[in-house]
Structures
1.
Amino acid sequence: MSDKDKDKNTNKKGETSKPWTRGGKGKQYAPQVRKQPGEIPMLKFGTGNNFHVFKEAISKGGVKDFGHLGTLFETGKLYIPMMPTKADYTFLPDPDDRKLLYTEAVKSYMKQVNDAKMNSPKLFGYIWQYLSPESIDEVKHQAEYIKFNKDKDPVKLWETIVKTHEIMRVESLRLSNGRLEESIRVAGKAGTNRSLPTGNVLMLRPKHTLIKAIHLLMKKI
């Protein structure tokens, strides 16, 4: 530390000042680290989980890190390039040119297929690292786990995650909407405005319009 820095930490009485602490209990304050845009959260399991937030984040991260292979999270399947055909090059007048370009296209196709096979286990590990202990435990309890874990099959892993986590999220929304509708019914019978579980206050005029809106919302889930 330079003499200049020492002067900054020394008050007029010659005492060295201490780092600022929260509540004066001697524990240094550390500002909370915010997640960076695009950062993938750990997937949580259970009612009201963060599956949809997780899916959106890993879909973007997957494409960024794995290119076409990362579209798995949107399509539910591995990207397979279209195999070229000789008919694709009939527009060329020279037969030698057609043969040359077709041969190069086949080589490129085979390279992409091979890369997809080689990177599949990496994509499996990429998904696995973002699973919480509870999510891992649920995945391991599925009947197909032993096989797709041995094969390091990212497609089967993702299918299992969707099956076990998306359903829980939908059920959570259905339960929430059920409680909301019941609150509206009770408030409507009382003929007054009622505070709902979410803390919001709905103007119940007319009550049947609100109940109908809830039914429409539940049908979309």
Note: Residues 77 and 155 are 6 Å apart (CA to CA).
2.
Amino acid sequence: NFPPPSWTRCLPVIEGGMRSREKNRKKRASRGWSPVFCKSSSSGYMDPRIVSFVEETADRPFDSKVPVSQPLFEAKPNEVLIDEYDPFGTYKINIRLRNRDKVARRVQIEEPTSHYFSISTKINTKNKVAPMMEILYTLTFKPRKKMDYEVDLLVVTERERFIIPVRAGGDRAYLTLPEELSFGGCPVYHPSKRTFLLNNSGPKIKFSIYPSA
């Protein structure tokens, strides 16, 4: 299924693109449309995956109320999926990092490895974030053409490093067909046929279907 179950749409800032801004505005305004899906740990999902730990120095023992299995900062969202976008458009998604600990902590999102993505913040990352307070980052996505993009944002705290996966999907073929076929009453020992329609409701992408029987 797409989008994945229980994901929520998060409204990004959209600039430019091949479509007109007016069309984008109307589409976003209709029933809360958004091309970006986000999921957060607060919606029942697990915390982001910790990939490594920062080495602790002997003269500064690490004391924290946050279990070592969880990051010091809660990421909202902790995963981003960009469903629909236009080449040469600019898409900005806010990412909030909240300090879970009882003392102020430092955190930073490193610059993405893909040149189609960039990360920025108006806050001095050398300063510490107070307990239960947030720091706001802005992820900027600038696609050049319709294709699959992906990057893992590396978040570095004073104790661990964890990732926020970001995925952007290119054009996909969407096949629609009847949920069931009813043959009604059929004579025995005689072939019965029914005609039904298969429709590609997605972009103009050709695909083939090979029945299994």
Note: The first strand starts at residue 8 and ends at 9.
3.
Amino acid sequence: SGESETVRILLKHNIGATKTKNYHDCPYGNMTPLQVLGAWWRRMDMEFTPNKNIQCIKDMIGKDEHYTERWKNTCLLVKAAYHGTVDTIQSDFRMVHACAAMEECVSSTVLKLAVEMYPEQLSEADENGHLPLALAILAGKSFQDHVQILLEACPSALSRQCIDGRFYPQILSFLGQNGSISVLFGVLKEKPEIVGVHPTNEKKRKRDRI
């Protein structure tokens, strides 16, 4: 009921609206509905106490009708953009996987909130056997935003998923410069062999297997 039901009805009649941008002279000009909501969540993220913001927002969802409806709308738009439908689909819809895999811009705040809301999805494989971390890497998502969020939340995904070795040096380099020591330790604990992977060695191993 409420605002989210109106959004669902509108999307059922025009699923392509997820990619339609506003007019340039609007307050959120030249942005898709999902980008507009992403900007709103980012603003809310900045208003709460530092380091507790996402948890505070999560607590508001379910308690405050405005936040609850905004989150329902966000999930509807992500589902519509990712699956091309807001109807029931054969495989269960996983918000974290969709945010990680979508080529369309999904703000890092929305991904962080999805991880906070559905932490169990971090270790669940989709219908193709991919975890969210692998989906983000395959989609070419930013290491500074999306990949780091998923690594921090679930370092064990590196040991559970077959990820192209070419990405390991990038992961280590980024974590060494920008990540916390605890995250770097968690990654090395789960995947100690990562320190011995070099792009040229990875190519050689692939040639040897052919």
Note: The radius of gyration is 19 Å.
